[in-house]
């Protein structure tokens, strides 16, 4: 059945040559201008992050999977968007060396803009609010009728995802004014803000997306429109919580390491940290 469905599409629609060209150009520039540049020290891990993100982005937007996501299964559309927002975006940020980010993202022209748009709680509210509104049936059905509107909406979501992950990852040490505890709380609160739309998909008993309802079961006959929406909710929460869980683990481990590094150090003449407890010694006479 998959072959007969795809036979209605051209090779251009199936294999996304524009995506291949764009990602090939970005890969060339990354290798030439960043990875092999003498100006930056790029660990092999960062190069892996970049190419893994590029491959995932192509599979999500340029491969035949994008046809299924756009035309046949709402759950695959949610999976596509979840990969872009919760996996690809943080990987691209992690792939950039600190000196590169400091040079191009934290110069005097960009600094104030980033401070404004990347305000921690503003990014959390904007990103989760926009993503929730995007999936509201009346809004989604209107946007999904136009390729241009869909593209604009997804670009806006990617931009806000970038700002949110910038706050979580904090690629520049001098940028972060949040303690590790606050950033951990930020990740937790951000995860909670997207909970309502995920639960809505899972418990819903009515089909709300006509474009997908009309072709329900054409890819997987056992999945009707309602099951498709419920699967979408499960995939959204699974990918979101996995990515945030990894971020939380990283933040907690780094927080613990900082506390361990403080162990036994004298902060001033009368203070000493022992097992995470600050002990005050009387002044020497």
UniProtKB/TrEMBL annotation:
Annotated GO CC locations: plasma membrane
Membrane topology term: Multi-pass membrane protein
Subcellular location: Cell membrane
Transmembrane segments: 12-30, 50-68, 74-96, 116-136, 148-172, 184-203, 234-253
Coiled-coil regions, chain positions: none
Source domain of life: Bacteria
Protein name: Cytochrome c oxidase assembly factor CtaG
Alphabetic keyword roster: Cell membrane, Membrane, Transmembrane, Transmembrane helix
Annotated source species: Pueribacillus theae
Keyword Transmembrane assigned: yes
């Amino acid at each position: 059945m998959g072959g007969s469905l795809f036979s209605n599409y051209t090779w251009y629609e199936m294999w996304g040559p524009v995506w291949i060209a764009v990602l090939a150009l970005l890969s060339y520039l990354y290798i030439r201008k960043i990875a092999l540049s003498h100006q930056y020290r790029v660990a092999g891990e960062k190069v892996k992050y970049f190419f893994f993100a590029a491959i995932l982005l192509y599979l999500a937007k340029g491969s035949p999977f994008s046809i299924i996501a756009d035309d046949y299964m709402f759950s695959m559309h949610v999976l596509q968007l979840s990969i872009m927002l919760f996996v690809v975006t943080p990987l691209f940020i992690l792939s950039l060396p600190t000196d590169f980010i400091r040079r191009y993202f934290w110069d005097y022209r960009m600094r104030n803009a980033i401070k404004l748009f990347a305000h921690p709680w503003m990014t959390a509210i904007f990103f989760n609010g926009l993503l929730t509104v995007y999936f509201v049936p009346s809004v989604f059905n209107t946007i999904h009728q136009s390729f241009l509107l869909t593209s604009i909406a997804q670009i806006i979501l990617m931009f806000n995802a970038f700002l949110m992950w910038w706050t979580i990852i904090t690629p520049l040490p001098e940028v972060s004014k949040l303690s590790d505890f606050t950033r951990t709380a930020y990740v937790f609160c951000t995860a909670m803000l997207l909970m309502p739309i995920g639960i809505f998909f899972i418990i819903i008993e009515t089909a709300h997306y006509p474009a997908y309802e009309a072709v329900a079961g054409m890819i997987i006959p056992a999945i009707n429109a309602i099951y498709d929406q419920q699967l979408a909710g499960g995939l959204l929460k699974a990918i979101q919580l996995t990515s945030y869980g990894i971020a939380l683990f990283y933040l907690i481990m780094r927080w613990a390491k900082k506390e361990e590094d403080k162990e036994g150090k004298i902060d001033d003449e009368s203070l000493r940290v022992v097992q995470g407890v600050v002990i005050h010694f009387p002044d020497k006479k």
